[in-house]
Amino acid sequence: REVHGLEAVFALCASSETLGGSNSFDIGHVDEHKALGGSINYVSMLVETDYIIDGPSVVRVGGTTAGASSADWGGILVDSGSSSCVFSDAVFSKLIQAATAESPAYAELWSSSTHCMAVSSCQFDLDALPVMSLDFVDEHRATFTVSFNPRQYTIWRNGNSLCLNFKTMSAIGSSNAGALGYASIFGDNFFSQ
What we know:
193 residues; alpha+beta; three-stranded mixed sheet
């Protein structure tokens, strides 16, 4: 599609409903045959130079609403070249609170300083962790949900530590991201399952 008078060069498709159950990065356009559940929702870029979008209007961890507003995200840079997601400090804190309320049995993962828990990858069922659901508003003001499953937001380290695969902006030492138009980053773990 043409945006801001420019021909589309790439597209990122974030959905658990795509062909093969995976999100995708498409060059030239979104391959519409991947949309199994119906139509594709487009989210407009906020600026012409970077893929920065508004944050989701509602965030849920399992059945618990996180209370993170679109403004808490501070704009999201969609970056398929980043290896993980980075959230504003406000969003990160609210996600951790909601995750702890939703699944207190995994408090070590949510609340430890390393956001890791010691457990064997052979003995742990990732499906026991809650799905994070993000409600976005598309360019036609319709709401749609993108799910962020445990395989996307966790990572195994050394086969015996399960860790969160997202960080806070302050943890990566970035204090000027807000001045750049974003305070959160969706990296490639958001686009893979």
